[in-house]
Amino acid sequence: MGLDLEEYHRWLVDVQGLQLGSLDYTSENGEGRPVLEYVSDDQDLLPSRLLERSQLEELLTSTIRKMPPKERTVLGLYYLEELSLREIAQVLDLHESRISHLKSQAILRLRADIEKLWPNPGGGVV
């Protein structure tokens, strides 16, 4: 190591004074809460999941922008404004069954586009 004996002894003294605490408990007497209770195990907060979610949001946004305007409007009113199909039918002056059809068609279009562009080996859309 290239140390003389005197320096080696100083290092030993320094290391002996160093105490590594237990990671099991947060208090010194061992009666506190386990440290692992403070560590998040939420899988949704992993950086890889956050990145994946961000990419999926971008994909959804671009796919929705390509949709026909009526389908896009129906999805927006249904999911963002939380209107019922009946309320959407009144707003757009269409029959409720037509609104239901537009909503289903838009969801199928979204699903097909996402499945083409977002490979998921587990099957289905995330």
List the helices and strands and how they pair.
Blueprint: H1 5-16, H2 47-65, H3 69-80, H4 85-92, H5 96-117
Helix pairs in contact: 2-5, 3-5, 4-5
Q: Would you give an account of this structure?
A:
The protein has 126 residues and is an all-alpha fold. The chain has five helices and no strands. It has helices at residues 5-16, 47-65, 69-80, 85-92, 96-117. Helix 2 packs across helix 5 (96-117) and helix 4 crosses helix 5. The model has no long low-confidence stretch (mean pLDDT 79).
Structural class: mainly alpha
* Number of β-strand runs: 0
Overall geometric form: elongated
Strand content: under 5%
Instruction: Characterize the biggest β-sheet.
Output: none
Distance between the termini: 54 Å
- Helix percent reads 55-70%
Low-pLDDT parts are: none
Order of helices and strands: HHHHH
Mean pLDDT: 79
- Given the structure, what is the number of helices? 5
Alpha carbon gyration radius: 29 Å
